[in-house]
Specification:
Length: 159
């Protein structure tokens, strides 16, 4: 993973980060594509995270996604790899804190999958322009635009 960058702690409310960079929420599957080097998606995931590390993209992940990522990586690669992956991830992205009200709000969104509804709420909390995911159909009916990683790279001219 790219090296650590310091991030400002205050969430943006404009769809742009502190330097006018686009704010995006990266879904768990894209994080796992990078960490587990899942072909053919890992290249686009790596480009997204590189852009975030370079400050060209203001990338966020939801707090609840971290435990899921750790669990899956630990199961597939071991505890040390999982811990290192989370530490590297936290050096590149910012984490959307979710409180009880956010979890309640997710219940009201009407999405088929509760975890995806939590991702939508997390995107709303930080005023993200989109959720970057490979599972756009799972977000059907959500109130935040959804882009595949390759689409996000093209839309934000990150190729």
């Amino acid at each position: 993973m790219p090296t650590r960058r310091v991030r400002e702690p205050v969430p943006p409310k404009t769809g742009k980060g502190s330097r006018g960079t686009p704010v995006v929420l990266i879904d768990t599957n894209v994080v796992l594509d990078l960490i587990l080097d899942r072909a053919p998606w890992s290249n686009d995931a790596a480009r997204l995270f590189t852009a975030a590390n370079q400050g060209v993209l203001d990338a966020w992940v939801s707090a609840h996604a971290l435990s899921t990522v750790h669990y899956i990586v630990e199961r597939e690669r071991g505890r040390q790899v999982a811990a290192a992956a989370i530490a590297d991830l936290l050096s590149i992205v910012r984490v959307v804190p979710l409180d009880g009200a956010a979890f309640q709000r997710a219940l009201t969104l009407g999405l088929a999958d509760y975890e995806d509804a939590l991702q939508v709420v997390a995107a709303l909390v930080v005023d993200a322009r989109c959720v970057v995911t490979r599972n756009a159909r799972d977000f059907k009916g959500g109130s935040v635009p959804v882009l595949a990683p390759a689409e996000a790279l093209a839309v934000y001219s990150l190729r």
